[in-house]
Write a structure and sequence with these properties.
Blueprint (H helix, E strand, L loop, with lengths): L4 H16 L19 H33 L35 H19 L4 H6 L12 H27 L1
């Protein structure tokens, strides 16, 4: 794995550890503080769905992009790895594929396991990429500005942190 990727996954784990040890994440995670807003469990499940979608896209897209890169032999013009928080400001509506439709009430541990399993699968998808591939290959996603592999991993953390922060704030307000 390209050396700049493991620290990004470490950041993701640390962020999860911090949120998953809060009182709010360890209480009634299936109860919505606001009727039309997601519960803690739904927010976590939504983050899992985005991870899963990223992994599925990566499993098909990255081999094709790598093959194209071998044929074309492009040079990386800039090693961009900064990623702004596209989730700051007004919240966006989730596409239907990412809306949490949980068939049952998962425990917090089960939800964490889902996240961890998908994270490991994402790592496997990108493990063999070189530095050049990590920076040259761009995902076909216009919302975050066609991010490269490094930026996608950063976006996964930014996305989760955004949802966890929002749900914590909402839950804290409702408890007052």
């Amino acid at each position: 794995m390209y050396k700049n990727l493991p620290p990004l996954f470490d950041e993701l784990q640390t962020m999860r550890d911090n949120y998953f040890h809060t009182e709010i994440f360890n209480s009634s995670i299936h109860i919505r503080a606001v009727p039309d807003k997601w519960s803690v469990a739904e927010s976590i499940y939504h983050c899992y769905l985005l991870l899963k979608l990223t992994r599925i896209i990566s499993a098909y897209y990255l081999p094709i992009a790598c093959a194209y890169m071998k044929v074309r032999r492009p040079k990386v013009k800039r090693y961009m790895d900064d990623m702004s928080n596209i989730y700051s400001g007004k919240t966006m509506k989730a596409p239907s594929i990412l809306k949490p439709k949980m068939k049952r009430e998962y425990t917090l541990l089960e939800l964490r396991d889902l996240l961890e399993e998908e994270t490991e699968k994402v790592k496997t998808c990108i493990a063999s990429l070189t530095k050049e591939q990590c920076y040259w290959i761009r995902y076909p996603d216009p919302v975050p500005g066609y991010p490269n592999v490094i930026q996608v991993v950063k976006l996964l953390r930014i996305h989760e942190e955004h949802h966890y922060r929002v749900v914590l704030e909402r839950e804290a307000k409702s408890r007052k």
